[in-house]
């Protein structure tokens, strides 16, 4: 059921790769709720994914942009404002990549050049997205900017590697830039700490199936899926959440507040 929560709003959605992507689900939901938006991803991701299928479904234009490139972001914002006919009301940053994790480098044997790449792509790009947006004055008053995070920013998950540091930096940037944007434009900036989700990126983390199952049993509501995360994103883009900013919002079925659950006890006791 649609509620027209985003009727008349313009946005930019980073990171939709395929139908399993959270950004893909957000785009579908934003379209359903009345928004117009552009879709963007790095050129290599556009070649690998199916974003044109999503663009056709949502009547959205695809504008290639490497979120680590200031020049690409400037071009993205200029073209998006032109295509959409005005300033931007919401941005979703759904970007994360670690060469060390992809290549299964042990945490005690990281390639530091790759570590810097992880930080640039997964965290510093969020600062760049907002810095360029501020300098170009493309955000509407009372706009909303979101990034997707994970609880590994606060807790240790061995196979998550240097992405844990990237998510910690991402959340810190949201607080710092959230203050700045609130004072200048009443723009709110938040991160969503999502359950482990069966996306293309998520399933590439070593031991994913094991900690997905563990999280599901430790979450009273079970793991939150990509579609429910999209619903949450829509509420944070809407005018119903104008006073929510600088927060890391847990969207994890209760995982982050649970010590142990009956389901987990039953599983451990059966062994």
Write structural notes for this entry.
This protein has 271 residues and is of the alpha/beta class. It has one domain: Rossmann fold (3-Layer(aba) Sandwich), CATH 3.40.50.720. It is built from 10 helices and 7 strands. A 7-stranded parallel beta sheet has the order 3-2-1-4-5-6-7, with helices on both faces. Helix 1 links the parallel strand 1 and strand 2. Helix 1 packs parallel to helix 3 and helix 4 packs parallel to helix 6. The chain starts with 9 loop residues before the first strand and ends with a helix. The model has no long low-confidence stretch (mean pLDDT 95).
Low-confidence stretches: none
CATH class: Alpha Beta
Count of strand segments: 7
| Tally of alpha and pi helices | 10
Helix and strand run = EHEHHEHEHHEHEHHEH
- What is the radius of gyration? 18 Å
Number of individual domains: 1
Q: For the record, give the distance between the C-alpha atoms at the N and C termini, rounded to a whole number.
A: 43 Å
Classify the beta-strand content into a percent band: 5-15%
Strand order of the largest sheet: 3-2-1-4-5-6-7
